[in-house]
Write a structure and sequence with these properties.
Elements (H helix, E strand, L loop, with lengths): L2 H12 L17 H34 L17 H28 L22 E8 L2 E6 L4 E4 L1 E5 L4 E7 L4 E4 L7 E3 L5 E5 L5 E7 L11 E7 L1 H13 L3 E2 L1 H8 L8 E3 L1 E2 L3 H6 L10 H9 L4 H7 L29 H7 L4 H4 L42
Parallel strand pairs: 1-5, 4-10, 11-13
Antiparallel strand pairs: 1-2, 2-3, 3-12, 5-8, 6-7, 6-9, 9-10
Helix pairs in contact: 2-3
């Protein structure tokens, strides 16, 4: 073999070196959900190959048989139809599409990320009384926060779960939409700000696995990954105890520090977590003085805050503290972070409680083009205060 040919072959083989670092986790899963997804992927591919392989082979065969130099090939210039060929051309793809549709329909419902697992593995069904491990996940810039509400601990860029026990992830995000993915365990699910999504999964094999943010989310995206440790129950209990022994508290103030964008963050542990923290993250009201989305929606459900509410309610969320909107016309600008009781309203506007408790129009404002109730801030109606009818247990609005 010539020296030139050897160099060309070695150069070609060198292109395969980067593949040595690849790990086919999608095709070699460690959990039942990922295994079923692998099977769905493989079966779909094989069904499509039933059409793809013959078409590719026939393309080569036709090109060779009917090439210009092959004078022995049949020549039929007036041929334009064959019932047999039409039947094969249309029937085979139609059957493949029907099979793929049925397979996808069943697989999509069985592997719905919101659906609780019906089995631990192919041989072991899930017991009806088996409670999954709950893990709250927050996608941050650019790191992952894991909160274990039952254990009262939290970690950053490190996840530990027991094998052969279902895990229920509840996910949200702080700023932009992100994608949570542990290829060896389960499928990908989005985490979105102001919302929460669900994902159920299980590990059947102990080991260390990689978790990633599978969609681009900004400058620090490349370092937004974490290690997942699947261990037995004893190993998971030891992980919980080590985290508790490490100390540290994740309260609202510490969370706001952690929320600031940062890259390639090493694993962190917190022995104590504010039990309301995750719901505050979902409702975008971790910072003091921010109205939660749930409160705002409750107000909207009762008919809204009226004209006064549009002027004096601070925005519910401002992740990067860029300032708040304030009225520039009309009354003297001021803002409140939440709605007050009638007694508080009376003190704020220098009125007596007797005036506030006078007969009022309690009809909620439910749509456009309706006559709004008199506002407590309107200068021409100093003695009239209108309140919306609140839900049971909810403070009245002014």
């Amino acid at each position: 073999m010539k020296r030139k040919d050897k160099i060309i072959r070695l150069a070609g083989l060198s292109l395969l070196i980067p593949l040595a670092a690849c790990k086919a986790e999608v095709l070699a899963p460690a959990g039942d959900v990922a295994a079923r997804q692998r099977d769905l992927l493989v079966m779909s591919t094989l069904l499509m190959l039933i059409i793809i392989v013959p078409v590719m082979a026939l393309t080569v065969w036709f090109a060779l048989k009917y090439r210009a130099k092959n004078r022995a090939a049949d020549y039929a210039p007036d041929w334009d139809h064959s019932t047999k060929l039409e039947f094969v051309i249309w029937a085979a793809p139609l059957l493949i599409i029907i099979s793929l549709g049925a397979l996808t329909w069943v697989g999509t419902h069985l592997l719905d990320p919101y659906r609780r697992l019906d089995r631990i593995s192919e041989e072991v069904p899930a017991a009806h009384d088996m409670q999954p491990l709950r893990v709250d996940v927050v996608a941050m810039d650019w790191k992952w926060l894991f909160i274990y509400p039952e254990q009262g601990i939290a970690t950053v860029n490190e996840l530990a779960v027991p094998v052969n026990r279902p895990v229920e992830f509840t996910l949200t995000s702080t700023s932009v939409m992100n994608a949570f993915y542990i290829p060896a365990m389960a499928g990908m699910i989005y985490a979105m700000p102001g919302m929460q999504t669900k994902l159920h999964g299980v590990f059947n094999n102990a080991g260390e696995y990689k978790g990633i943010a599978s969609h681009y989310s900004g400058h620090g995206f490349s370092g937004m990954h974490f290690k997942t440790f699947a261990t037995d129950e004893a190993g998971f209990d030891a992980f919980v105890e080590r985290t508790r022994a490490g100390g540290g508290t994740l309260d609202r103030a510490r969370y706001l520090e952690l929320e600031a964008p940062s890259e390639n963050v090493p694993p962190m542990q917190f022995a104590h977590v504010d039990p309301t923290l995750f719901q505050r993250v979902v409702n975008m009201c971790v910072a003091e003085g921010k109205m939660c989305m749930a409160e705002m929606m409750a107000i909207d459900r009762q008919g809204g805050g009226g004209l006064a509410g549009t002027m004096n309610t601070a925005p519910s969320h401002d992740a990067h503290a860029r300032g708040s909107r304030a009225p520039v016309l009309g009354w003297k600008p001021f803002q409140v972070a939440s709605y007050c009781t009638p007694e508080d309203s009376a003190l704020m506007f220098g009125r007596t409680a007797q005036v506030v408790q006078a007969p009022m129009d309690l009809t909620p404002l439910r749509g456009r083009a309706l006559t709004p109730p008199q506002s407590a801030l309107a200068p021409s109606h100093d003695n009239d205060v209108t309140q919306l009818d609140p839900a049971p247990g909810q403070a009245r609005n002014f």
